[in-house]
Recover the amino acids of this structure.
């Protein structure tokens, strides 16, 4: 692994980001729907055509598509993603406001998933074929089968509407009310964690079983090491390599996967402006958000490759 | 002191129980402080006083801005910045301004501010919702500092109601595009972008004792089920747009109450530029083919009412029992009309709706089934809402399902859906020929005598039943759900339901 390798990877990331931006920009302009008309059509009542024409001119939508694209790419190179057609708010500011909330949700969900999935996988492997292993495997299958919006709705129904011990959803900034902020974070984080915990459980269990069958484990036991030390130092450490890879890749997937969870729990991350922008044909906002998610996904993959190489020097050499 | 392993285990077991007070609902400090927590269905894209940005934004705007008039609990026009209004001998509308009204910056509300606001609405570069109406104002005169006189190009009987619309506010001339200075009972004190808006009582509001609340915190819940869950769990005190499927649950909950009105309606629109729907007999056949009760039952969970005529609300002077059922369910008559029009064997066509809103899709499916029973085979087209709007405006459809509410309860408010000579729009039929209906609307608008207006609008209904510029399907219920301790709020009748946010100035905790 060298600086050249890293530069090559970063060039690929930049190229893919440009491709994503171009495809989304062109695709959005090809589907029917006029942002100006939609913006003035709220409530199902027709806007005055003169007002629509006035707004189209103001928004720069009367320019040829190529001119709009050139302006967009020019802005992109200057780090300017434009402003929302709906409310003139800078796209970059919207992303700066929303992205940390989405990342916080993913981080909280990942922590819960790791705390549940990895230990459960270890215990299931040690209890192979036993009651815990069978029960945990069954629960995992169930968790993977239940759609996230169904689980989310059930959590709201149980904890907010029936028991009334948790808020149904929403958001309060941490600085304003830390306790309420954390309360509002718990249910969506559990919903996010659901799928990831199940995947981590399966991955850890399989990796542990592989590692347990190795000769060095038998040697460690023969040396008289304690069972706990054998498991933690010799088995788990070797088993975690594929688990870390899967975790990294899954976190990338979660960037897109949080849309439903954020919607169900009214968590104002990246999904709300994205959905609103798609519905309202708010071209700059859609391209900006999709581009951000794509770049983060690509960078995350790059980080996973680096971490994998660090954990397993054989990967770096290859 | 040593901590044993057993003590640690006990502490671990006790931790979840010890944290219960944190999890359980805190006492409603906000409620005690006179702050109403209101579940809003959408975050206002902006709070511009004249641009239509939806009814949810309208609710907030109605509270921070004020116009010359507003609507009272029974739907009657009542004075706000104006105390009275009347026609003068020359046919101009004269408004007397209320003395002592001030904007949130402390400046008095003057006739110059009123004039300036109207000029902005009607301006050439304006994107105001009421722009075309106010462009019919020829001159704005200020005979004295407390009077404003509007001279219109043609007689306008409904002009005072234009000021009741929640996109027609009077703001200070010192306003800027980023800071609008209103004269409403509340002032904007903060907003968390995309999540919440907070307003606080304005202590210099011109009505004594109003507003009754200290403030309102609008929390956005875009998902209707979560909005209902927030009400049921006590996260908010009140919500708008109670989902139809949850209305029974609100009524059954001893802590909650429901205030609903039938105002918005569903209808069928036609493309009148090509056969078969350029023939009014075919459109009338469609009108007689659909059993409306099925739509109310399936699409609205029984929360609505069949609409077998034009959307004229029962109880208003314009309503007539026979005319209200002029398009009654009669498949035999529908088939006879098709035969008379030369389509005895039926035909294939398309029905445009949207899958984005369940009520549109469900209504379309039921219409499709009933039309199939008389031989009209419809292919359903269910794109997203944006595409539905674009195709509707361009006339790229045969039939379309639409849902809307008129601006107010006067039949003139139906012009926007009935006058097919207006520019093409997704909300009215595409170039359907309905000359008698449109002529009657114009006569009604120019007539000031109430008895004569009633007769004109009954004539308009008779014409529409024959010309069929649209087919009414169902009134749909629009409900506000609230804690039983929330008092003083009224859901305004009929089409004014969307203007009910105005009533929050009279709302309080009982």
């Amino acid at each position: 692994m060298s600086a050249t390798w890293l530069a090559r990877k970063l060039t690929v990331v930049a190229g893919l980001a440009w491709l994503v931006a171009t495809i989304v920009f062109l695709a959005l302009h090809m589907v029917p729907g006029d942002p100006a008309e939609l913006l003035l059509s709220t409530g199902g009542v027709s806007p005055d055509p003169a007002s629509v024409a006035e707004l189209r001119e103001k928004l720069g939508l009367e320019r040829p598509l190529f001119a709009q694209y050139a302006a967009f790419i020019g802005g992109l190179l200057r780090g300017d993603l434009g402003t929302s057609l709906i409310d003139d708010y800078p796209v970059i500011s919207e992303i700066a406001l929303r992205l940390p909330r989405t990342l916080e949700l993913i981080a909280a969900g990942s922590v819960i998933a790791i705390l549940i999935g990895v230990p459960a996988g270890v215990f299931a492997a040690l209890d192979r074929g036993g009651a815990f292993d069978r029960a945990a495997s069954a629960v995992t299958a169930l968790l993977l089968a239940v759609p996230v919006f169904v689980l989310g709705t059930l959590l709201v129904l149980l904890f907010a509407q029936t028991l009334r011990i948790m808020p149904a959803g929403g958001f309060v900034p941490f600085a304003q009310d830390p306790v309420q902020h954390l309360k509002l974070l718990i249910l969506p984080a559990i919903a996010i964690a659901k799928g990831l915990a199940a995947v981590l459980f399966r991955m850890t269990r399989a990796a542990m079983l592989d590692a347990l069958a190795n000769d060095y484990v038998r040697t460690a036991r023969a040396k008289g090491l304690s069972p706990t030390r054998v498991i933690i130092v010799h088995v788990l450490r070797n088993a975690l390599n594929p688990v870390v890879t899967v975790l990294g890749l899954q976190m990338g997937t979660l960037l897109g996967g949080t849309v439903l969870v954020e919607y169900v729990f009214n968590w104002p991350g990246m999904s709300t402006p994205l959905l609103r922008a798609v519905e309202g044909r708010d071209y700059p906002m859609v391209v900006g958000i999709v581009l951000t998610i794509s770049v983060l996904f690509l960078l995350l993959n790059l980080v996973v490759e680096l971490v994998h190489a660090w954990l397993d020097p054989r990967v770096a050499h290859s | 002191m040593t901590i044993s392993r057993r003590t640690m285990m006990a502490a671990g077991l006790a931790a979840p129980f010890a944290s219960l007070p944190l999890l359980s609902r805190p006492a409603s400090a906000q409620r005690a402080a006179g702050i109403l927590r209101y579940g809003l269905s959408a975050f206002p894209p902006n709070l511009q006083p004249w641009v239509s940005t939806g009814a949810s934004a309208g609710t907030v705007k109605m509270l921070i801005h004020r116009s010359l008039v507003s609507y009272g609990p029974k739907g009657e026009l009542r004075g706000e910045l104006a105390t009275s209004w009347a026609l003068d001998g020359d046919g101009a509308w004269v408004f007397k301004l209320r003395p002592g009204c001030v904007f949130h910056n402390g400046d008095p509300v003057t006739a110059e501010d009123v004039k300036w606001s109207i000029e902005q609405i009607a301006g050439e570069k304006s994107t105001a919702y009421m722009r075309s109406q106010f462009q019919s104002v020829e001159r704005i005169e200020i005979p004295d500092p407390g009077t404003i006189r509007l001279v219109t190009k043609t007689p306008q009987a409904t002009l005072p109601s234009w000021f009741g619309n929640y996109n027609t506010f009077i703001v200070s001339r010192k306003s800027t595009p980023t800071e609008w200075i209103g004269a409403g009972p509340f002032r904007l004190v903060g907003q968390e972008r995309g999540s919440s808006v907070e307003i606080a009582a304005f202590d210099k509001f011109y009505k004594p004792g109003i507003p009754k609340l200290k403030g309102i915190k609008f929390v956005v819940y875009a998902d209707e089920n979560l909005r209902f869950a927030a009400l049921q769990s006590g996260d908010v005190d009140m919500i708008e747009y109670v989902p139809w499927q949850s209305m029974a649950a609100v009524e059954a909950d001893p802590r909650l109450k429901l205030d609903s009105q039938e105002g918005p309606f569903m209808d069928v629109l036609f493309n009148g530029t090509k056969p078969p729907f350029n023939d009014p007999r075919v459109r009338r056949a469609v009108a007689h083919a659909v059993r409306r009760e099925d739509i109310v039952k399936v699409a609205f969970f029984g929360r609505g009412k069949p609409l077998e005529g034009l959307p004229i609300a029962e109880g208003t002077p314009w309503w007539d029992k026979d005319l209200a059922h002029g398009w009654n369910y009669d498949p035999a008559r529908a088939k006879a009309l098709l035969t008379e029009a030369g389509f005895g064997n039926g035909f294939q066509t398309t029905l445009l709706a949207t899958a984005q809103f369940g009520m549109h899709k469900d209504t379309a499916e039921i219409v499709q089934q009933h039309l199939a029973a008389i031989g009209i085979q419809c292919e359903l087209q269910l794109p997203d809402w944006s595409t539905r709007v674009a195709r509707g405006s361009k006339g790229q459809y045969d039939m379309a399902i639409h849902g809307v509410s008129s601006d107010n309860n006067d039949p003139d408010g139906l012009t926007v859906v009935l006058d097919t000579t207006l520019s093409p729009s997704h909300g009215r039929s595409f170039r359907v020929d309905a000359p008698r209906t449109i002529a009657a609307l114009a006569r009604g608008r120019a007539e000031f005598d109430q008895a004569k207006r009633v007769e004109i609008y009954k004539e308009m209904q008779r014409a529409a039943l024959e010309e069929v510029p649209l087919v009414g399907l169902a009134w749909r219920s629009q409900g506000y759900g609230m804690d039983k301790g929330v008092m003083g709020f009224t859901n305004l009748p009929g089409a004014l339901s969307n203007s009910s946010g105005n009533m929050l100035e009279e709302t309080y905790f009982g």
Notes: Chain B touches chain A through 62 residues (CB under 8 Å). DSSP finds 18 helices and 19 strands in chain B. The CA atoms of residues 228 and 460 of chain B lie 41 Å apart.
